[in-house]
Amino acid sequence: MSVAELITLSNMELTRFFFAIVLLLVSAHWFGYLFQRFKMPRVIGEIFGGLILGPTLLGFFAPEVYNWIFNAFEGEGKLISMIYWIGLVLLMFISGFEIQKSFSKGDKKTIFAILIGATIIPFLAGWIAPNFYDFSPFLGPAGNMTALKIVIALAVAVTSIPVISKIFIDLKIINTRFAKVILATATIQDVILWIALAIATGLVSAEKVSAYSITSTVLITLAFFGVALFVMPKLIRFSNNLRANLLIKSSVTGYALFICFFFAAIASVLNVNIVFGAFLAGIILGTMPNDKFGNVKTHIKEISLGLFIPIYFAVVGLKLDLIHNLDITFTLGFLLFTTIFESVGVLIASRIIKKDWLSSFNLAMAMNTRGGPGIVLATVAFDMGIINETFFVTLVLIAIITSLMAGYWFKFILGKGWSLLKEENSEKIDVSNSENINKTDDYQKHI
Question: What is the mean pLDDT of residues 294-319?
Fold first, then answer.
């Protein structure tokens, strides 16, 4: 194939591509705004915006229109897929530089206990679940059962920082000790679970699954994460001040995006999924001085949240075929399974450190929120061929349902005047203090 063929599309293909992008963008923003107005996570509205354009609604009631827009030619489908992947990369990038870097010393015991309960117990439950239930019908085209077991384990353990943050902001409890404990725990958990998912995608990328390939994938992934987190920040800080660094002199925003896509490219070369490279690049950027990179991060968020990320979530909705790929029995069963083991893990850990039952249950409800990371898990696993469409639909629906469950639960608790943590009985939640809430960035408000 020539270079000209690679970059050339017919006028009709371009017309359909831009028409599809306009529809996805408008629908995502329109429904995202409506859902936000009704106190639901914006991301759910964006997914719904894609859902109505997909095979579930438009494809079912007007298949000719649906096929003309989205399935007519391969060319514009690949372009939409590129926008989708750029959106996912940028989502992980800005997620990385939102990661909290410091935690309260007084809460370390609570954070450690909840981390163990919310991560290890659910992960082990998900890992051994295929020994008691046949998950082979939900195996993707890659046919890698080890990778599937990792995804199942992650699906039980994953927690959404953005969604639970948004819930705390809406309820004006973002500055409480309860919120800080949850966000700190979820931050550490996210890094651990993304490493596990990177290992799963690495196993799928390996030509042959063997003890050697598994060991090498684990070691390469851990080495990549270790070098990126502990070595690269120092090297990048050093390069920031080099006279030869013309890129940062020309455009700091361009330099930040270079870091993002460079790490994504290196990850791909190492058979680590590109989104984890972007996530690590975001963490590194978050360690850079705010006087130079603060405005840059804001600019990247604005364009990402205005264009690429809404289209990413809309395409997630577009992929959902609830007519043909929804197994309601399996979805409800897996929802119950994930909720029980995540909750039990947190309850056990909370009771061990002598939290009362209400505080323990509040912690469990917060850590059971899947949200954006649950959707990223579903899309990465599906795109890598680890899971099939039915399991993909199940994971996305569980992410949505658990996010709604947490929101309504905490509204109920605060409406009753009950404390979130027993130690907060002596504190009053200052619902009038909006200074810090107003400073919260658009990313947290978004999802």
Answer: 90
CA 20 to chain centre: 24
In the structure encoding, which two tokens stand for residue 225, read together? 């994460």
List the Cα angle 336/39/300 in 5-degree steps.
100
Residue 206 region by backbone torsions, left for phi larger than 0, else alpha for psi between -120 and 50, else beta: beta
Q: pLDDT tens across 18-32, in order?
A: 999 999 999 999 999
Question: Which residue, chain included where needed, has tokens 């831009």?
Answer: 18
Domain assignment present for residue 221? The answer is yes
Percent of the chain with pLDDT over 70: 86
CATH of the domain at 433: 1.20.1530
Q: Which domain holds residue 349?
A: 104-299+324-446
Phi-psi category of 39—alpha, beta or left, where left has phi over 0 and alpha has psi -120 to 50? Answer: left
C-alpha–C-alpha distance, residues 335 and 398, integer Å: 6
Count of domains observed in the chain: 1
pLDDT digits over 375-384, tens only?
A: 888 988 998 8
Query: Is residue 316 in a domain?
Result: no
Helix (H, G, I), strand (E, B) or coil at 8: coil
For the segment 131-179, what is each residue's pLDDT rounded down to a tens digit?
999 999 999 998 889 899 999 999 999 887 666 766 776 677 867 888 8
With beta carbons less than 8 A apart as the criterion, state whether 314 and 27 touch. yes
Six-digit token pair at 131? 């020994």
- Note whether residue 54 is domain-resident: no
Domain membership of residue 305 (yes or no) is no
Q: Are 114 and 360 in contact (CB under 8 A)?
A: no
